[in-house]
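Q: A reviewer asked whether we had any structural model of the full assembly, not just the individual parts. We don't, so I'm hoping you can provide one. Inputs are below.
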Amino acid sequence: MGTKYIQFCCNRKLLTVRKMSIDIGGMRIRYKDREETFLEKHLVSKEPFGQFKAWFEEACSRKEILEPNAMCLATATKDGQPSARFVLCKGYGKDGFKFFTNYGSRKAKELEENPNVAATFYWEILNRSVRIEGHIEKLSEEESIKYFHSRPVPSQIAACTSYQSTPIESRNVLCEREKVLEAEYMIPEKQIPKPAFWGGYLIRPRAVEFWQGQRDRLHDRIKFRKPKVGEVPDEKLLHQGEDGWVFERLSP
Ligand SMILES: Cc1cc2nc3c(=O)[nH]c(=O)nc-3n(C[C@H](O)[C@H](O)[C@H](O)COP(=O)(O)O)c2cc1C
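A: Here is a predicted structure for the entire assembly that you could use as a starting point for your response.
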């Protein structure tokens, strides 16, 4: 087979470089060593939110992780057609995980007909992932307004210009809308009203799994979930947690 080359223009010069073939099958990184396993005794909390806080704060302390709050959110239509995208988690606590978006977007339309969601965080440098399953609730208008006005003004304007997920003729259309809004609102003391089509959601989890990748591929998985009706922890496979949660170790 002859060597393949590709040509491209850089600073008005035509460059020729050898085409690299990437071996995806051979791609793998080294996860954590045996002495760094994630065992039940390492849980800092017997309910998922305290455990999430510990892992999330560790992720935030690592400068290599630029957006520790980025999570992949999966939604589905009422007949189960899934879709996934990243959003930024903007709060978490005993109630669940919050994010903000456009209420006219594809995800929002799917959430209207099917409130079930899944979300995952992945912090590569820590070899850790958190996996959430639950249902969605809209945040109150007051909370959405408060968060909207905490954002930088250009972000507020951008939220007003975008009818998210709808087809648009060109980028210029957005820039024109932005200009009009900037002229109207980039004035000191003038507040941009939050559009009715923008706001937040809360994911109320029924399961939260903590995954840690191990070098020997015997990865650690500890899953918190709400118990099924009548289910009693046997303290062998299923353990009693706190605040109505149980937890179990899953095979990798
Ligand atoms: C790292 C990252 C963070 C994002 N955060 C948000 C967000 O918080 N809210 C949002 O509406 N879109 C966010 N987006 C854009 C979404 O991924 C997506 O393009 C948009 O929400 C439209 O999705 P939909 O058509 O499925 O509704 C983010 C994208 C990336 C890559």
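A: Points you may want to mention in the reply: The first strand starts at residue 5 and ends at 10. The helical segments are 48-60, 106-113, 141-150, 153-161, 171-185.
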